[in-house]
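Recap from last week: sequence in, structure out.
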Amino acid sequence: MTREDLKKVTLPDTPGVYFFRDGRGKILYVGKATSLRDRVRSYFNTDVLASRGPLIERMMKAAKRVDYEETASVLEALIREAALIKKHQPLYNSKEKSDTSFYYIVITDEEFPRVLLRRGRELFSEGGQDDVRSFFGPFPKGGVIREALKIIRKIFPFRDSCTPRAHKPCFNRQIGLCPGVCNGEMDAREYRKHIKRLEMFLSGKKKALIEKLERDMLRAAKKEEFEEASRLKRTLYNLEHIHDIALLKRDTKEEREYRIEGYDTAHMGGKNTVGVMSVVEGGEKATNEYRTFSIKEAKPGDDVGALAEILSRRLAHPEWQYPKLIVIDGGKAQKNRAEKVLKEAGVGIPIVAVVKDEKHKPRDILGDKKLITEHESAILLANSEAHRFSLSRHRRKRDHITPQY
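Predicted structure tokens:
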């Protein structure tokens, strides 16, 4: 698909989901957008390889048209995207439907179900669904789905950790985020109805849910169950007036901010070697995006080989947002090897290397001088965070508790 093809499509400046299709109409890729017009246009930038990676570049070559669905909010776009990926399993979303590092909203199978976030690696492990009633996802970005859950919880208050029938309100009940299963305001039967409504919303069935809520509200009013009718009326109002400014800001922030990734390794005499990735976005640490890599192929003490292995395995995750700049710890040898790895992968991301003195303090930065001048503080932050994080994970590895990719 080309820029000329895009000119034939009128895209609204509204939230929604979009689909790239091949010549037979098969969905190749599903995405969500704060602005459908701006997001889809971004795929036709000249730096699509550097900004989105080789997987998306291949998808764009295979795509013949783009379709879309508008949604009333960014929250609904996020939920609709996950539901469509699960349903259609598009080829170029394959990482998103199978990667075990992704997040899922889980509803537990209990008398009073809890609503939780779980990683795919936990959910799809042996016995990982034994206590699960239903789950929804995948959601690639933990920060986005956590923000979304805060909004969802204001519409559908739920239990996550309180003790049912404890005869006193939990903290979340006091601020309106628990429906009152802790102090007996809502019994198990009513709470299960409440959870079914939440499941409809998470399945992307908002229209059907609104119709059901309206029927339930009228039924409750006829039975003179005015407290229940009032509760359903509030839910309807909140559904039709979703306030997702915080989610919109986070989505826009993650799309537009300058992302830098820092890489470093740590070991003790070549043993228990780990490699890490730190992330700085907009000049600030994005700790939820940090990753740890267990070194499997490089020989003990081979720091250059370990760096190459880390970068190769990072590039095997094109669903992770690509950075605008990569920062490595080392000199010319490390920088040259890193550039070779990226070149072989067909990824055009610039690399800078932070050279340290004998006290392991930054002495020089190798690379594009303009980029270094513009982003020096963020480069040094990414490098120092990678060093700190690698030492932390090295110590944890000795205790066999490090999550790895």
